[in-house]
Design goal:
A hairpin with a 5-residue loop joins β5 and β6. The chain folds into 3 domains: about 130 residues, PAS domain (Beta-Lactamase, 2-Layer Sandwich), CATH 3.30.450.20; about 160 residues, Reverse transcriptase/Diguanylate cyclase domain (Alpha-Beta Plaits); about 240 residues, TIM Barrel (Alpha-Beta Barrel). The chain is about 40% helix and about 25% strand. By secondary structure, it is α/β, with parallel strands linked by helices. Strands 14-15-17-18-19-20-21-22 form an 8-stranded mixed beta barrel, surrounded by 6 helices. Strands 3-2-1-6-5-4 form a 6-stranded antiparallel β-sheet, with helices on both faces. A 5-stranded mixed β-sheet has the order 8-9-7-12-13, with helices on both faces. The longest helix has 20 residues. It is built from 19 helices and 23 strands.
């Protein structure tokens, strides 16, 4: 074939590929009967190559015998110049001998004399295209979960790595989305090179990639990743442009099989985000993050996760009182989640909430917590009409599109007064879009719902959140008051935060009050409410009612 016509074939093929929207592209020079096809189609259907002579005949051999004749007649009319459009559905044989349902559409491009010159179009594979990422050509998130399922079926130990790019939106903003896709393509190629055939590679959601390896242990993956991270940070070029890419990564080792693939993925995402938030992109091996000495954490997490899907079986709420700083009368309480199981006993939330937040099931648990807290809170309102129920929110709940609607529906369903509800957010909510939070806060406050900023000062963006969001209460974290009687630094911190909150017309609640001496010392500052073990540890609702409704409240600070 002449070079000039080949170049034109390639140019037209690239143009078609831009608008293919995830389909396989084909283009035939009808005068030479020479075609170019997508590499993904070649790989999936085991075709001779991306360039083929008599491609119509080659492709016909892959079509199911029952569909072959109608395809043959359509292509015959195309090449005879009778038809200018090809639009049909048929079954085509894949590399593994199975048939995939395909929709094929194509058009004839005529020359200046009106004669057919090119025939091109796209083939959509309805059976598999969702398993192939259209940008990189790698297996997608769906393929990842399918392969995980096979691992559990075969009971084969594997290491699973999740890596992704930080600040990718900056690349898109500077260079454009097409260039951004080129960065992901180049990164996919580099991952293939670095892990060199010893792994299966996947393009996940957003800018993330996953690797599954039967041969490599987490420590070996960590060493390869370390070199990869260094290279993409200093020596990464795309289309001649030097691009500095920052990676994050987490690894989980699968060597127990009485858990679900969703549990593994939640653990994997937890390790990934620990790498992103706390380790400056250093690879995090999930097992190293566990506090359980018996290393049964993943099994526990799997049971806890299943409990959520079983109408939150085993979960219950405890409540810690919030006292007025001046009168020491009951002002409100904070709802705190617990989980109990006959095998493992009571598991504190710190052991499962950070990981479970990465799970798609978490908003379901969050909804259960809100509903249960509202139902329990109504029991306090007859004796304490100004009583405030505080409920912690996770960023995983806040990022749900229907979260505001869910809260308002629960208030209506339970009959709990919105003005008696206070929703607490933490510094981790900085991960969410600030404009989204502003809109939520505005809607909540319009309905009378109070908002609190929990664990104030523990993160670098707490001040920014306070400045941008209209909160009613700032809660000072226990870390800043545990030595407040002796530490000038803690004293200055409490003074600063209380003055800052006052400047933004917010009340101040201090957590972690453990002694009478600490209480008395904190009263020197502009503090509105106190919370901690000095008044009570978190207790179930039955005990809370017994303590604060049925008993004489002459000594409300008795533990």
């Amino acid at each position: 074939m002449k070079e000039e016509r080949l170049n034109k074939l390639n140019e037209l093929f690239e143009a078609l590929s831009v608008i293919a929207d995830g389909s396989y592209v084909y283009l035939c020079d009808m005068k030479e009967d020479y075609s170019r096809w997508s590499q993904n189609a070649v790989d999936f259907f085991n075709l001779p190559g991306i360039y083929m002579k008599n491609a119509g005949t080659v492709w016909e051999e892959h079509i199911h015998p029952e569909d072959r004749e109608i395809y043959h007649q359509s292509i015959k009319k195309i090449f005879a110049g009778i038809d200018g459009i090809h639009d049909m559905q048929y079954r085509a044989m894949a590399r593994d001998g199975t048939y995939a349902v395909c929709t094929c559409r194509g058009v004839v491009i005529r020359d200046n004399n009106g004669k057919p010159e090119y025939f091109g179009g796209a083939i959509k594979n309805h059976g598999l295209m969702s398993y192939i990422d259209t940008v990189t050509g790698l297996r997608s998130l769906y393929g990842f979960f399918d392969d995980l399922e096979m691992i559990f079926y075969k009971h084969e130990s594997h290491s699973v790595l999740l890596t992704g790019v930080s600040g990718f939106s900056d690349i898109n903003d500077i260079y454009g989305y097409t260039f951004g896709n080129n960065v992901l393509q180049k990164l996919g190629v580099l991952l293939k090179e670095k892990f060199s055939g010893k792994v299966s590679l996947y393009r996940m959601d957003g800018t993330k990639f996953a690797i599954i390896s039967h041969e490599l242990m987490p420590e070996q993956l960590a060493e390869i990743y370390k070199n990869l991270k260094k290279e993409v940070s200093h020596d990464f070029y795309v289309n001649g442009e030097h691009v500095s890419v920052s990676l994050n990564a987490g690894v989980v080792r699968i060597d127990t099989f009485n858990i679900s693939k969703e549990t593994v993925y939640s653990c994997l995402k937890y390790a990934y985000y620990e790498s992103k938030r706390r380790r400056f992109g250093e690879l995090v091996i999930f097992a190293d993050e566990l506090s359980d000495e018996n290393r049964l954490f993943i099994e526990k997490l799997n049971i806890i996760r299943n409990s959520v899907s079983e109408n939150c079986k085993g979960f219950y709420l405890c409540y810690q009182p919030i006292m007025d700083a001046d009168t020491e009368k009951l002002k409100g309480m904070e709802a705190l989640i617990r989980w109990k199981n006959d095998l493992y006993g009571t598991i504190p939330p710190i052991q499962f909430i950070p990981v479970l937040e990465q799970d798609p099931l978490f908003p379901e648990l969050g909804k259960w917590i809100l509903q249960q807290a509202m139902e329990d809170g109504k029991l306090m309102l007859e004796k304490y009409p100004d009583f405030i129920m505080n409920v912690n929110l996770s960023y995983a709940q806040l990022e749900q599109n229907d979260f505001v609607e869910t809260v308002l529906q629960l208030l209506d369903q339970t009959g709990f007064p919105p003005e008696n509800l206070c929703l607490e957010i933490t510094e981790r909510c900085r991960l969410l879009d600030l404009s989204l939070l502003k809109k939520m806060f505005k809607t909540f406050r319009e309905h009378g719902i109070r908002m609190a900023l929990d664990d104030f000062g523990t993160g670098f963006s707490s001040l920014g959140i306070l400045r941008e969001l209209p909160v009613d209460t700032v809660k000072i974290d226990r870390e800043y008051v545990k030595n407040v009687e002796k530490s000038a630094s803690d004293q200055n911190t409490v003074q600063f935060i209380s003055n800052l909150a006052d400047a933004f017309s917010a009340e101040v609640c201090v957590e972690g009050v453990e002694t009478a001496q600490m209480r008395d010392f904190l009263r020197k500052y502009n503090i509105n409410s106190l919370q901690g073990y000095f008044y009570s540890k978190p207790i179930p609702m039955e005990q809370f009612i017994e303590k604060y409704i049925r008993e004489n409240l002459a000594e409300p600070h008795t533990v």
